[in-house]
Amino acid sequence: MLLATASYIYFPANATAVGERIVSTVQTILTGTQANMRTSYKHNEPGQAPPPDTFKEIPIGQERIVSLEEARSICPFPLAIPGYVPAGYKLVQVRVQELVKPIVNLKLKYSGHNLNPFVLSETNAPGSFTGGYGYDIEDATVQDVKIGGSTGKMIIFKNKDIKISWIRQGIVYELNGKIPKEEALKIVNSLQ
Prior knowledge:
Oligomer: single chain
Largest sheet: 8 strands, antiparallel
Number of strands: 12
C-alpha cells in the first residue's frame, strides 16, 4: 500500500490595503517543487450584506470574437490599451466573455509575422476576486513588479513564457506570452 501525503505552507508574499480595498497575494508551496500563486481582492462597501447561504447555478456567456469598438460598449469598465507594443506586433483579435453580471473578461491578442503572440486579459472584479496559478519552481522564477501604482507578480519560465498579473482599481490584468521580460514590462507599464 502506498501512502502519499501532501504538505503545504502559506506565507504572505504581498499585501496592500487602500481604504476598504484589500489586495493580497499568497504563494503556497506544495510538495517538492510545485507551487501555487494565489491573488485575492476584496472590496467591502459600507453596509454590504453577506453572501447568501444557498448557492444556485448561474449561466455564463460564451467567449466571442468582437471588434475593439464592440468590446468598449460591452465592458462595464474603461479598456486599457497598450500605448507601446514591440515592433512588428499589432492587435489581431479581441475576445469578450460576459461572466456573472456585471463581470466581463476581455482578451486582447497581439501578434505579427514570425512573432510569438501575447495576450493581455482584463477582468473587472467589482466585489472580490480570487485567482491562482500553479507552476513548478524548478522551471520558473517569480518576481514582484511595479506597474503604475500597483504591485504585481511576474513568472518567467525556462521555456521563455512570461506571465504578469496585477490588480488596479478593481480590474484584474494579466499578460501572457513568449516575449522578453523587458518588452513585457514596457507593455504593461504603457496601458492607457
